[in-house]
Each structure stands twice: as structure tokens, then as C-alpha cells.
Specification:
alpha/beta; 7-stranded parallel beta sheet; two-stranded parallel ribbon; 11 helices; 9 strands
Length: about 300
């Protein structure tokens, strides 16, 4: 098919992206300073992409047709705020610049739903529900500010050459082993997250199976040349990570959502993937209702 370079290939989402794209016939090159890139990768390079020279060297060495940029400090407040912002923004800039300069055809940049601003200490309420890509962004910490900057960096470079760009906002990523009881990125199990609504409520009960998000990236890189340059997509499950309807649950855990939550009927999620369905024909296949092994509590 084509050669795809995946940064952050050992991460929670990166592992599934590598395996999924390799299974689809792509030659996948992993780039990650940490171990854990799946064996399906044709090659793995432990490069520091915050170094401009290393970023250019990686792209020049492998000459990929597509780059999927997932590498980042992925957890808010896990490092000093200045470090999170510096690392994540430098990564995005270096990858975009190297890709445009060296003629990469397609680039996908990972952003985050957190750019919407939920969880802000001074309070937050949505402009409307479900939230789509047109919803205003309200970053309040270094992590989500860095993701807003990554999106804008992507859009800036989209104007600078012939490279096709898009950004994705994957919801709370669930790796395959987490369905069987392994801790999620928040440190809790999925069963705990379901049983204690205050854990998932701060992020509006969003989630996506890593394999679904990986399949989305495969669809996206194939479609990018036909899309307007610089599009942004939410990537999420078709339901909420909650045992009760969000119309009832969300106002209990996120004050201020009362006027909007009533429209979220049944198991509907707070984030809309209508744009991905409309432009790409993509919809998540997996749900916690079918994937979770509850007897692993």
C-alpha cells in the first residue's frame, strides 16, 4: 500500500495504529523513545523529535507517504506545565515542518477533546450538546493549550505547501488490554470508571476503543487528498461510557449542562462524530457494552 511513519508508536493509541495499518498492508515505521512498538512495525527508531535535526533526519531517512503524529506528553499535569507545553508544541512544529519541507503527502496530527475546556477549575458549561468540531475551544492548562497550538500549527503548514493535513481529537482512548481490567490512563479500571460517575464525568463520559481510532486513521490518510486541507475531526465511540443516559447523569456531575443534556437521548455520547460519518463514512464499531469483561473486577 504505502509507507506510514507513526510517531508515539509505543503509546496507548500508537500500538493499535501500528498493528491496524500493518494488517491493512501498509509498511509502518515506528518512532518512539520508549519501548513497546508492536512487532508488526517494519522498523522502529528511538528518535527525539523535539530536536529539529532528528525530526528531519527521520523523515528524510524513511521518506514516508504519510505521517501520523501521536507523540506527546499525553497526560495533563504529569510534568511541569512549561515542559508539557514546550514538548508538545515543539513536536508538532518539527513534524509538520519536516513533512512539508521533505514532501510528505499526508500528515495527521493528534489533538484532544480537552481543547473544549471541560474540567476548568472556575467552572465550564458547553455552548451546546452534542459537541462538534465547530464548538468554541477554551483551553485552561498547558496540555490542552498545547493541543490548540498543534491544531493551529497544522493549519498554518497546510497553507505552506502541497502536503495534505488533518487533526484528530481522539476521545479517552481505551487500549485492548484495558477491557480485561488493566488500568486506564487515569489509573482507574473501566469498571471503576463506570461505577463512579465522578471519574468519567469530568471528561463528559467520552471514550473510544484504540482499534476504532486506529481504523479511523487508516480511512483518513486514504481520503486526505480529497478533503479540504486542515480539517479537524472528533473520533469517539457511538455511545457514552456511562451506565445511565447522559440526559440524567451529566447534570449531576457537571453543573451547568442541564439546559443542553436533555437532547442526549438513550446512550448518546456528548461528542458528535457526524462529521467523520459524513465526510469519511466512518463510525466506531466497538462499545464498552460488548468489549468490557466485567468479571475481571
Amino acid at each position: 500500500m504505502s509507507r506510514v511513519l507513526v510517531t508515539g508508536s509505543a503509546g496507548r493509541l500508537g500500538r493499535s495504529v501500528v498493528a491496524t495499518l500493518a494488517a491493512a498492508g501498509h509498511e509502518v515505521i515506528g518512532v518512539d523513545s520508549a519501548p513497546g512498538t508492536p512487532a508488526e512495525a517494519a522498523a522502529v527508531l528511538p528518535a527525539d523529535l523535539t530536536d529539529t535535526g532528528e525530526a528531519f533526519e527521520v523523515v528524510a531517512r524513511f521518506r514516508p507517504q504519510s505521517v501520523i503524529h501521536l507523540a506527546a506528553i499525553a497526560t495533563p499535569f504529569s510534568r511541569p506545565e512549561s515542559v508539557i507545553f514546550k514538548v508538545n508544541t515543539q513536536l508538532a512544529f518539527n513534524v509538520c515542518e519536516a513533512a512539508v519541507t521533505l514532501g510528505v503527502r499526508n500528515v495527521v496530527i493528534a489533538s484532544s477533546p480537552t481543547v473544549i475546556g471541560y474540567g476548568a477549575p472556575r467552572g465550564w458549561a458547553p455552548a451546546y450538546l452534542p459537541i462538534d468540531e465547530e464548538h468554541p475551544v477554551r483551553p485552561w492548562n498547558a496540555y490542552n493549550l498545547s493541543k490548540v497550538a498543534a491544531e493551529q500549527t497544522m493549519k498554518t503548514f497546510a497553507e505552506a505547501g502541497t502536503t495534505h493535513f488533518a487533526a484528530i481529537r481522539p476521545c479517552f482512548v481505551i487500549a485492548p488490554e484495558e477491557w480485561a481490567g488493566a488500568p486506564t490512563q487515569s489509573g482507574h479500571t473501566l469498571t471503576e470508571r463506570l461505577d463512579r460517575p465522578e471519574l468519567g464525568g469530568v471528561s463528559l463520559f467520552n471514550y473510544v476503543d484504540a482499534r476504532d481510532a486506529a481504523e479511523f486513521t487508516g480511512v483518513l490518510i486514504e481520503a486526505l487528498p480529497e478533503l479540504p486541507n486542515g480539517e479537524v475531526f472528533f473520533v469517539g465511540a457511538a455511545d457514552a461510557l456511562a451506565r445511565e443516559p447522559l440526559a440524567e447523569l451529566l447534570p449531576q456531575v457537571v453543573p451547568g449542562t442541564e439546559p443542553y443534556a436533555a437532547g442526549l437521548t438513550g446512550s448518546s455520547p456528548a461528542f458528535s462524530t457526524t462529521k467523520a460519518e459524513r465526510l469519511l463514512g466512518w463510525q466506531a464499531k466497538r462499545s464498552w457494552r460488548t468489549e468490557l469483561k466485567e468479571d475481571s473486577e
